[in-house]
Amino acid sequence: MFMKKTLSILFLIPIISTAQKLPRFEKDTLYTSCGYKIYKGLTLQFGKATHDGKFLYVNIKRKVSRLMLENHSILVKEMTNFGVSILHNGYITIKGTLITDGNPREDIEIHMAFDHAIENLPHIPSELIVPNEYRGKRKINPSQEIERVRKLYQYGTISLEELEWQEKQLSAMQ
């Protein structure tokens, strides 16, 4: 009986592990984990920077201030450098036109952790504004997220202050 249960569990592990929807990039369309699609010609709407006036999941690569991106949008022209980390975090570089007050303003390039930018956690509002049907779909494992932000700190991506703030928010979810 024990052997039968063990074999059944071992048989199900690959099914369970592949059931998680991973992001993918196919034919110039980014399919996020939550099902939201980003493609050339789409206008992405950004919200407020989530932590001390900074975006946590959107890194602006050109000389555009975060104030210019905050509550404005980008018309997507090109997407490159798609990747998924070992922790299943998806990243992509987006080149486009910054639109403020409905008018095209200047070229912009961002590198974005798109699933995190979309997610709407209790203490971390969405940085990328999408319809509600796509938010809150990602299953968050606070322990994994704490490990992820610690790695971001180790790589110099975030400051010690940002690390401590994130750890505090994520610990509250446990």
N to C succession of SSEs:
HEEEEEHEEEHEHH
Radius of gyration: 18 Å
Sheet-strand content, in percent, reads 25-35%
> Poorly predicted ranges (pLDDT <50, ≥5 residues)?
1-20
Helix content: 25-40%
What topology, given as strand order, has the largest sheet? 5-8-7-6-4-9
Number of domains: 2
What overall form do the CA principal axes indicate? Answer: globular
Q: Give the class from helix and strand content and strand pairing.
A: alpha+beta
Largest sheet: 6 strands, antiparallel
Terminal Cα separation, in Å? Answer: 35 Å
* Chain-averaged pLDDT: 79
The total count of helices amounts to 5
Count of extended strands = 9
How would you describe this protein?
By secondary structure, the protein is α+β, with helices and mostly antiparallel strands. The protein folds into two domains: about 20-140, no CATH class; about 140-174. About 30% of the residues lie in helices and about 30% in strands. The strands form two sheets. Strands 5-8-7-6-4-9 form a six-stranded antiparallel sheet. Strands 1-2-3 form a three-stranded antiparallel sheet, with no helix packed on it. A hairpin with a 2-residue loop joins strand 7 and strand 8. Helix 4 packs antiparallel against helix 5 (about 160-174). It is globular. The two termini are about 35 Å apart. The model is unreliable at about 1-20 (pLDDT under 50).
